[in-house]
Amino acid sequence: MKSSTVSVEDTPENRQICMKYCGGCPTYKYNSLGKFQPDTLFCGRGRSSAPSMKEVNCYCPACPLFDKHNLVIGRFCHRG
Ligand code: SF4
Ligand code: SF4
């Protein structure tokens, strides 16, 4: 059953799914988000600790975890 209260679990599988989307996202590349923690799964682990960030685009809406958890907006790397 879908519920907006289900949080995204921090599992290796979910990190892997995330990297298919965040990993290819222009915002991720532009800001070298792989160098900062958390480096993936921002919707479950919180926003990036990158000191400054330019939002270029967000691929979250295409991600299966986004749909599965009824997430909205996206850009979790920046907005948490
Ligand atoms: S959260 Fe959205 S904007 Fe940030 S890296 Fe992932 S897909 Fe890109
Ligand atoms: S919704 Fe965005 S931050 Fe969350 S796993 Fe998917 S691509 Fe990553």
Average pLDDT number = 92
Main β sheet profile:
none
Fraction in beta strands? under 5%
Number of strands: 0
Keywords summarizing the entry:
35% helix, single chain, mainly alpha, binds iron/sulfur cluster, 80 residues
Folded structure, characterized:
- The protein is mainly α and 80 residues long.
- The radius of gyration is 12 Å and the shape is globular.
- The protein has helices at residues 12-21, 26-30, 42-45, 64-68, 76-79.
- It has 5 helices and no strands.
- The chain has one domain (12-79).
- The model has no long low-confidence stretch (mean pLDDT 92).
- The structure holds iron/sulfur cluster (SF4) (2 copies).
- One iron/sulfur cluster binds at residues 21-22, 25, 27-28, 33, 42, 58-60, 74-77.
Question: How is the topology of this model organized?
Answer:
Blueprint: H1 12-21, H2 26-30, H3 42-45, H4 64-68, H5 76-79
The structure holds iron/sulfur cluster (2 copies).
Summarize it.
With 80 residues, the chain is an all-alpha fold. It is 35% helix and 0% strand.
